[in-house]
Amino acid sequence: PNTSIFFITTKPYYVLPTLRSRCWWIRVKASAxxxxxxxxxxxxxxxxEKVVLYLKTGKTLNPLQIYGLLYRFQAYLxxxxxCLKTNSEDLSEEELExxxxxxxxxxxQEAFQQIEIALSTLFHSGKFNPNPSLFYQWIQVLETCYKxxxxxxxxxxxxxxxxxxxxxxxx
Length: 171
Fold this sequence. Notes:
mainly alpha
């Protein structure tokens, strides 16, 4: 009865749903924002603005707003990939492609984590009175969409799927 178990991870999307459902989630910032997070911040602010409007009014986003967010997300990925510094003389084409793919996967994972944090912050801010199950539904949809990126489903397409499904889960 007086025992606490701490389950700590830097990759919450890899934790089995059965474990996640039995845990209390506490987000801890490990360090100051890195340049990837700073580059993603304007996109996250636009995303939060749209979600706040949605929660306050119940009005769904029009397709242009969704595709505007997707376009900005693609620009973020492209910009971050352009920042990848490699010494191509030391790497074969296959190694260079593997490095780029690994970096893209890291960017996508970080972006989806930041989206989850943004949703959590909005729901726990006390500014809204949403049904708690709505938040968990949105997180489940987000995790499903993230998992699609693991099987070569494009990040922008996975995010599109999330945004479109997110709008269906409003009560």
